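#lab-general

N.A. 3:47 PM
ok so I finally got the sequence cleaned up, no stray characters, all 789 residues accounted for. can someone with queue access submit it? mine expired

B.Y. 3:52 PM
send it over

N.A. 3:53 PM
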Amino acid sequence: MSQQGKPKPGPTPVGEVLGQSVPRLDAREKVTGRAVYTDDMTLPGMLHGALLGSPHAHARILSYDTSRAKALPGVKAVLTAEDLPDHKIGAVIKDQPLLARGKVLYAGEPVAAVAAVDLQTARRALEAIDIQYEPLPSVFDPEEALRPDAPVLHAQRDAYFSLQENTEARAKAPNAASHIRLIEGESDKVWERCEVIVEDVYETPAQQHVYLEPCATLASVDRDTGKVTVYTSTQSVFRTQAVIAEALGIPMSRIRVIAPRVGGGFGGKTESTNQPITVALAKATGAPVKMTFSRTDDMRMMRSRHGCRIHMRTGATRDGRILARQVRIYFDTGAYADDGPFVAGVGAWFARGPYRIPHVDIECWCVYTNRLRASAFRGFGNPQIHFASEVQIDQLAERLGMDPIELRLRNALETGERWLGGVPVESGTLKACLERAREVSDWNRRRSQQAAPTGKRRGIGIAAVGHVSALLGSSATVRLNEDGTVTVNTGAVDIGQGSDTALAQCAAAALGLSMEQINFTSPDTDGSPYDWCTGGTRTTFTVGRVVTQACEQVQQQLFEQASEMLGRPERELELRPGGIVGVKGKPDASVTFGAIAARALYFKGGPIIASSRWLFPPIPIDTKRTTAQGMSSMGNGYFVFATQVVEVEVDELTGHVQVLEGWSVHDVGRTINPAAAEGQVQGGFVQGLGFALTEELVWREGQLTNPSMSGYKVLGAPDVPVALHAVLLEHPHGEAPFGAKGVAETSIVGVAAAVSNAIRHATGAHVHRIPATSERVLRALMARGRGSQ
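B.Y. 4:20 PM
back already:
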């Protein structure tokens, strides 16, 4: 269900494609099964690659014996770290080898790679590799890892190249990947003025990305030129190109990366997956090599969301004015930093919440442990901190005897106010989202009426959400074809969210064309303009911005030609639907794009083509307002807001939680494609329900115990509420394409908190650790003196 909000943006441009649920460009090929993913591809003489994972969470590698594996018929190459350049990679800290070198830091870490004539032979070869280890003491808890007597994972940490500032506190903690401290106001003195104080500890799990398509790469090397061509499931062809170059010492000019159809990513495919090692096998064998992870290998070797522990205290006056907040955050980044320091930075930045709290003290650690590396995952640190923040806001409302929505409205940031660090809130629409959520969910009635079947209790919970949209750099090229159609070229990868369609709609709207007149190209580093990555709720905003800017330049070139062809000044010209430039007020005076293209190509001016580029400008922290350590800027994007509401039914006998209905209200700026936007909201909401109720990677003595879809519980259709309402409000942003804002990550951020708050409303039980499994809910019920029957 979609419900449009007010105010409405300006008129739709010519073309009538904005705001329309046009079919996705890739819909037919996916529905019919004709879509080609990396694992569907073959090349002549292609070999198959496989990786051997460590059996230990922390151990020194004493020796390798690969002779038996190399002797197997059909095995073409066996590689260990000794066969590779000693180059470390990492998004923030260069701390990770392609294959474990010297020691292993988590169970499942790749230690050897094989290429063979088929996958079965490759797997037999892995079993024949003999590696001798010396087990070392391990640490699995981030707070324990910060203790002086904890095992040190990275003895050379301070020698690694790092984008992070080193703080005195980090320097004293060898297992700290990063440390951040943000202080505003007089947080040490204000507590005595707080009339109500709430304090608790909250925990969120390591969540697996569970993209439908496991990581896959096909690499080949040209025998004459040495140029590497890589087909891979990735969120960024350019990041993949850069990481391969860095890991293997190959010039980027000799690496071509192409993204076929991608079956999901959610942040798990932003950096290196198995691409560099597949390239290394292709170079070693002189043949194409394809490596596709099994689901188990993907779960053991790849990435997860950061598990997190948050100590939070919030104080307010009796009338509900929040005065102070103190937060201590511990992100478990696993064996390698990956995106962890940036994730921790986002967590710290959002720890105050979307509220005006004048006195804050936030300390955030990103910590190495002997677990699977953690990385970017939809929401990028924000779902963890929002869980703690929004649950505590409800606890505070309960102590104050105030409605949870009223407390949020009383403290919500508005346009013109400042976020933590002094960053301006340019479009403060949280209040609009809260009020709309109260209306569409029938909050007041449901809050007061909890009728439920015998043995069950019903409740409703809410979470306010603040996130960002934009982030880093993009570019695009738009070219007029000879027949008047247009080719749009960007490096953005559509990973299943429908960005190709939305960006094509932006181009069509800007030039007055139909979707059939737009040719949208696939990402290829040999020909696509640069785009940083599909992630961070940025593609529609950032790439859409450069696409529309390039279209504006094309329009200007069209008008220059048409002015001479029609004998009228440019100011009197207009675009008309279907690829026509006409004279305002004169229906018969016009010229087609095709005619203009012919004139430009063969008579005057040259091809009509334009490029645009943009980088979101980093915003430095206002040091007069905020004392900051470990962060110098907070240039993550423009703020976007949402509100999420969940109604649940809790079985008092078993602790089982059933979600009955959900509402997700988002300020999307302007809706480019309603069906796609609603799909994003609903998909993120369901993924958030998994985070809240069932999804958790579980380790025992360093071993991942549930690396399979039978052991890792993802919600199925029967677990998802039939009534899941996506409510889209439109408050256009001036810097965005047609005012559009991002929605992809925002849709997951507050769900877990809303579920926890609904459980508390239903039963009085406080669930401060998710997922809220039946066992945890039952224990919370018993702690409240309920569920004894």
